[in-house]
Amino acid sequence: MFRILAATALGLGSAAFGPAAAHAAPQAGLVITHIKCNQQEDNTGADDAYLVVDGATIWGPVQMTDGDSKDIQRVAVPQGKVLTLMEGDWPDDDDNLGAKTVNGPGDYSFTDDGANYVVTIANG
How far separated are the first and last CA of the chain, in Å rounded? Predict the structure, then answer.
């Protein structure tokens, strides 16, 4: 009763003391969880695969050959950004194995320059 009287004296409605509105939990971002090499690009030795977003390397380089499969420790990737798979080719220029716009969770195939990789993206 005292709270209602105090609220009235302060010009506050009783709604000010009702239960707190439930706030929606922040939406989890997207994360890269896996990469599989079905066919490597390089004919001499392993590919040095790495992933790039906005010009910055977010994973790798990691050596991969045909059949290799690697779990990735939940590397964040923003929805709507372009994810590019590159293959290091020192001393030559690196090879672009494909670029995909991240539209949500799923498997993204990178098949440029004779390679075949699948990158798995999940909800974080």
Answer: 46
Distance in angstroms (rounded) separating the CA atoms of residues 65 and 61: 13
pLDDT in tens, 32-43: 999 999 999 988
Query: Which amino acid, one-letter code, is at 101?
Result: T
SS3 letters across the chain: CHHHHHHHHHCCCHHHHCCCCCCCCCCCCEEEEEEEEEECCCCCCCEEEEEEECCEEEEEEEEECCCCEEEEEEEEECCCCEEEEEECCCCCCCEEEEEEECCCCEEEEECHHHCEEEEEEEEC
Chain center to CA of 68: 20
101, containing H or E segment: strand 95-101
Contact 83, 97 (CB under 8 A): no
The pTM score is 0.76
Q: Model confidence over 1-11: pLDDT tens digits?
A: 444 434 444 45
> Is 39:115 a contact under the CB 8 Å cutoff?
yes
User: Is the peptide bond prior to 78 cis by the omega test (within 30 degrees of 0)?
Assistant: no
